[in-house]
Coatomer WD associated region domain-containing protein
Amino acid sequence: MLLLSYRIVIGYDEGTIMVKIGREVPVSSMDDSGKIIWAKHNEIQTVNIKSVGTNIEVTDGERLPLTVKELGTCDLYPQSLKHNPNGRFVVVCGDGEYIIYTALAWRNRSFGSALEFIWSPDGEYAVRESTSKIKIFSKNFQEMRIVRPTFSAEHIFGGTLLAMCSSDFICFYDWVECRMIRRIDVTVKNLYWADSGDLVAIAGDTSFYILKYNRDVVQSYLDSGRIVDEQGVEDAFELLHETNERVRNGIWVGDCFIYNNTSWRLNYCVGGEVTTMFHLDRPMYLLGYLASQSRVYLIDKEFNVMGYTLLLSLIEYKTLVMRGDLERANEILPSIPKEHHNSVAQFLESRGMIEDALEVATDPDYRFDLAMQLGKLDIAKEIATEAQSESKWKQLGELAMSTGKLAMAEECMKHAIDLSGLLLLYSSLGDAEGISRLASLSKEQGKNNVAFLCLFMLGKLEECLKLLVESNRIPEAAFMARSYLPSKVSEVVTIWRKDLNKVNPKAAESLANPQEYPGMFENWKVALDVETRVREKRGVYPPAADYLKHADRSWLTLVEAHENGDLNHAVYNLYYLFSLKPAAQKNIGTGCRTKWR
């Protein structure tokens, strides 16, 4: 037998079979006052939720300590049990029959044949005796009408309208004259009407649909005397929302649809927005909602009753927002406890009301995200200052940079130790002092790539070379020396040989030292001469306003300038571009390396 289920597997010679014994859904019902009646076999018992004293503190999901009272017995085996709308009567249905009892004294008031039984909002009721015969009775238990549908009625549902459904469609009728109101082509598992009678939830195999019933449109159509065809009144229903989730069972509280799904999560839906209230640890089934306690109650197959908090003020607030009545919604907001304000803010955000969500939210992380969405950097900065979170400072710095608030961007990036961001900022501003400070900070933080770029932009090539050697990037140091500091090549090659000799002596011997083989290095003497001349100009940072005067000469290499006798002018151009326009460095460096080799 499967654990915690009524399924049992039987094995025999030619295979196995699984059968279900009994039912997992408890036969129970709760009225609006909190009185619950349930059936255990033929025995009828009752409990009262309000019997739990206010001095007893019960947490959400905790089993209520209820006193069970014997109410009586039933003459048939109950398969369903349901209070009528005012709670005075209870119907028990099973074994192809129904019996209506008084809820308090458990006295028999009426009985008859029925495969299914449903109540109307006014206390009338209908029974399905077969797939082709439905009877409607008055509040006084008198038969009023027999309906014989033109299709096979597999199920009937009560509520504002009488509903009959086949395997692939459902038809709605009015209770008084059984006139066709609307046919909807959908597979229906269950139907739930709101108390107002204006909203209905249709639960299907994989989805549920929230529809609005336009009773005024229907009444106007019927009063006009026009003929109602087999499809009914076209505008009788309006589809509001569709949710891809299977409903186990559900109830309405105002305009809020509460349900549990196949994953046993307790959810509620307002305006198409689904919110998970609780994750249930076992199968539970909804009994009802007590507005006086702001709690929704569920029952499991062992007849344990649990309650979960769902604030009526929260539901009313969301409902008013959906209707666009923000003035009344704001009047209700103070009555919602602070711990629920983040839930309210998430709802407002989903409706695109981000500014209102920011005012309501209390969680700092959530408020920071909302402030970032709205571009309210001052609020985001206050939150980041309190939180002292590097990730928040980094996000804020990036947004400040993109919106042109560079002073704030610099402050945020310093707090976040965002070295790459600071490099972008300082290089864009041509801030040599900032880049110099960043070079020192980067070395302290072990970010050698950023430190190298800072030193390179400042023209501190010797320090670049030293950093590469200290970082054990000796081959890169040798190539850099060949390109920018020819006088240092011999020194770096010696270090490279020594290091490479540890792993590959032959490769180490193959390295050429320009002091030993100057002929193997093209324009070697010219490169040394150019380096000497260029060294004098390093560290000179001309104003950015002069950039366009020198940009058209960025293609000229120093070797070519030396040969043309225009080296001084070329050096000024080179280091102007070098110091203020890092994007041009690649072209400049490549030109120098190509000629010096």
Summary: The longest strand covers residues 237-243. The CA atoms of residues 410 and 425 lie 7 Å apart. Residues 576-597 have pLDDT under 50 and may be disordered.
